[in-house]
Each structure stands twice: as C-alpha cells, then as structure tokens.
Amino acid sequence: MYWKKSTDGIYQSTYSTMDIVTRAYTITGLTSGLYYDIVVQAVNVVGGSVLSTATRIVAATAPNTLAMPTVLAQSSTSITIGWVAPTTS
C-alpha cells in the first residue's frame, strides 16, 4: 500500500507492504487535519499492478466548540436542554 500526506500541497510519501490475506491495514501516526491520498497496488515476483484510484481522507480533527445549551423544558424535578451540533465532528 502506498499513501501520501499533504500540507499545503507538499507531499510526503510512504510505502508499506502487507500480506495478501489481510486486505486491511491500519495507518498510524497521522496528523490531525492533514489530507492523505491512499492507493493500493498488487505486487508479485513479476512486478506491480497499476495503482488503484486514490481515496482522499482528512485525519480526524477535534469538533468545534458547542454553542451554549438552551433550556427546552423544565419542571420542579427535571430539566431538558438542547444544543446545536458542531460543524465538525
């Protein structure tokens, strides 16, 4: 598997190998907020296949701050509050 990350269009590339049976790989050490283009390629003793189409992901970032909760309903023994979901999750 070959993957690269970008910060402002500057790419750093990494190549990893894995067993054909696995067909899954965990990439560690990602930086929050960076773009990563991920492609896979089959390789054997004869050579390598054409690279797959890239999948672009952005490493997870912390959600934005929530707005102040608002009281939706209340009684003498309970209160129901509501809030607006953050724009990133």
Q: Report the major sheet.
A: 4 strands, antiparallel
Helix content: under 10%
**Gap between N and C termini:** 28 Å
Quote the beta fraction.
35-45%
Order of helices and strands: EEEEEEEE
Overall 3D geometry?
elongated
Number of strands: 8
Low-confidence stretches are none
Radius of gyration: 22 Å
Oligomer: single chain
Q: Average pLDDT value?
A: 78
* Strand arrangement, major sheet: 2-1-3-6
Explain what this protein looks like in three dimensions.
With 89 residues, this protein is an all-beta fold. It has a domain at 2-62. It has no helices and eight strands. The strands form three sheets. Strands 2-1-3-6 form a four-stranded antiparallel beta sheet, with no helix packed on it.
Search tags:
89 residues; mainly beta; two-stranded antiparallel ribbon; 0% helix
Question: Could you give a short description of this structure?
Answer:
With 89 residues, this protein is mainly β. Helices cover 0% and strands 38% of the residues. It starts with a strand and ends in a 7-residue tail after the last strand.
What's the structural blueprint in terms of helices and strands?
Blueprint: E1 2-7, E2 10-15, E3 35-39, E4 43-44, E5 47-48, E6 55-58, E7 70-74, E8 79-82
Antiparallel strand pairs: 1-2, 1-3, 3-6, 4-5, 7-8
